[in-house]
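Journal club side-thread
Mid-discussion, someone asked how the predicted structure for our own chain would compare to the paper's figures. Pasting it here so we can look after the session.
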Amino acid sequence: MSARTTRVRLFAAATAVLASLALTACEGGSDTDAESGPAASATVTDRSTPPGDSSASTGGDKAPSGATGSGTDSHDSAGSPGSGGKGASSAPADGGEGGTGAQGGAGGEDDSPMPGECSASDVRITAQKLSRPLNHLLLTATNTGSETCVLPPYPAARFGEAQSVPPVAESTKPQALTGVAPGESGYAGVMLSSGDGSGENGYETTTLTIPFEDGSIARVALPAGGVYVDTALTVTYWQTSVDAALGF
């Protein structure tokens, strides 16, 4: 073998060795890049949305829930209908306290002022002599004023110059004082004398006066010719009807 042939073979062998080494180096670098590539990709995936992590869905649920709660609080504090806010509690409850009506009124009580006492200037009193019962007068007190008033318990009648008033028949006492509205009347009966002549100190008179509790005095015209009175003289309480006034 010549020396030239030997050199060619050695060169070819060296070239093959170098090519092999270069190929090995390239393959090693490619493996390294492949390993580093997937590792970097996995790291990015873990940091953004880790597999199996439920925080994203939970956070999504919490946000609407929080918004709804906030809206409810605002709705309540505004006191809108149906909420538990102050607006609902301060709304008037006319459907109940009826009420009182009435406080209904509350209770249905009459708050109108009580009528005052009648005065001689508010009342006109007339005297009518009756055939039945015998020896009786009917007194009629008519309210000529503009307001309702209450008559005295009974007429403290003074016939003529009498120094005292006649007794009142207690059996005729009503449950309440007699009030008369404008234009209305109250009634009282007067027994002038005994029918059997048992009365004493009788006398004829043509005048009659009836005082009122405010100090005023009504002068009542008696029937023509006057009336006869004795110790049997008795009056009734003021009544709301003629029958009650003459039923004693």
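Post-session note: The chain has two domains: 1-44, 116-246.
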